Structures are given as structure tokens and as C-alpha cells.
Amino acid sequence: MRPLRFAVMAALGEEFRSAREARGLTLSDVAEQIHIRSVYLNAIENEEWSAIGAPVYVRGFIRTYARFLGLDAEDAVARFNQTAPPERTSAATVVVADDRDRSGLSIWAVLGTLVAVLLVVFVAYEYWQYAQGNGAKGPVAVATASPQPVGGSGGSQAPAAGSSGAPSAQPAATPAPLVHHQLAIRLTQRSWLRVTVDGATKLEGIFPAGTARSFSGNVADIRAGNAAGVTVAVNGRPPVPMGKEGDVVEQHYTL
């Protein structure tokens, strides 16, 4: 049975390699067009699934690569599922760990949930503090600047009191605008993520479910390896998933 399994796996990878070479493309050419690193494309063609990571990423990369080459994406994913189902191994590991130390797993689950809740509260507080701080900048600037034009004349306080209506009302009518806007990201599933804000990479790596981050700027580009597990909220709007499970998606946001 084992030799037969490796033969099917080799046929799957060889099918990708043959389709690519028939188009006269290198791995680098394909990587530039579908935005998947060539090391992952090479892992697909050589069936080195462990080099890619979790099965959800393998399925997403296989689906994207197959669509680009004009192959049957769902058939390729189904063949991968038949020959290398990782869920059974992970489930057995969870059962063994649960039987071995049920109480310890429960404690860690509670701690993980508590950390996730505290992280969400912290991000929400930071956002609120940021909004409050921007709203308070206008009046503070007015209070500091108002004595300067009055101090140029001999009678400093008396002219200021006589003209307090106009100067104090005029700056209050034009508070400092919000130059930088907010982008809030929350992961409902484990996913690879890269966030670029105003041309600078702010976040990149594989993050667990419950991860929450917020960014400020003018424009942002987000690339997710498991689009269904990444939700994005722009300027306080309700969070929206970036795509379907296992899909590799890149989106541009104007804040």
C-alpha cells in the first residue's frame, strides 16, 4: 500500500510540474504572478507538504496553483486529501493528550481564552485612547497659542479679555482633523498574515486564532494565507472576512 501511495503523490506533483513547463514558465515566473513564494511551489511539485505547513495552507496553495495552470483545482485538492489526510493524526494526538492530562488541558484552555480576551480589551482601549487623544488636541493647541498674539502689545490680558469671543470661538470651530485612520484585524482561525501600511511592513508571520491587531495610516495592503480566518474592520465598520477557507487573498484598503 505504501509504494502505491507515493506513486499517486508523485503523479500529483508531476502533473503540476509538467503543466508549468509546458507553458515555458519557471517557478519564479509563477511566484510573481500568483504571489506564492517559489519555495512553496517547489514543495508542491515535490510533494514536500511539511515544508508548507498545516493542511489548510497546502490546500489553499494547491487550489491557487492549479487554477493558474488551468488544472482542475478541486480534483487536485481531493487527491491530496485522499493520499495525505493529516486530520486523523492531529485528532489522535489531541485524544492522547486529553487522556493523559485532562485537567492540565482545561487550565491551558482557560488561560488561552483569558489572554485572548485581555488582548481584545487592550486593543479596544488603545483605539479609544487614540480617538480621545485626537479629539483633545484642538482645544489644547488653542489654549497654548492664544497668549502669543496678545503678548506682542503692551496690555496683554485686557485686549485678550475684550476679544475673547472671536479668537476662542474661531479655533474651536476647526479642531484638528483625524489624519490617520484605523484598520482593525482579528483572526478567527490560524493563518499566515502580512500587513503593509503606507509602504512599510508592520506584521508578517503565522498567527493563532484570537490574534487581534490595529493599525493607523492612509493605505494598507493585507495578504492572508487562510482568508476565511482573517476579519478586517476599516474605520470602525463591522469586521468582514477576507475570503474563503484555505484561499490566499491579498486586498488593498484606502483608509
Describe this structure in words.
It is built from ten helices and eight strands. The chain has 255 residues and is of the alpha+beta class. The strands form two sheets. It has a four-stranded antiparallel sheet, with helices on one face. A four-stranded antiparallel sheet has the order 3-2-5-8, with no helix packed on it. Helix 2 packs across helix 3. The chain is globular, with a radius of gyration of 27 Å.
Write the layout of secondary structure elements.
Elements (H helix, E strand, L loop, with lengths): L1 H21 L4 H8 L3 H8 L9 H15 L3 H11 L3 H14 L1 H44 L1 H5 L5 H6 L2 H8 L8 E7 L3 E7 L2 E8 L4 E6 L1 E6 L5 E5 L5 E2 L7 E6 L1
Antiparallel strand pairs: 1-4, 1-6, 2-3, 2-5, 5-8, 6-7
Helix pairs in contact: 1-5, 2-3, 4-5
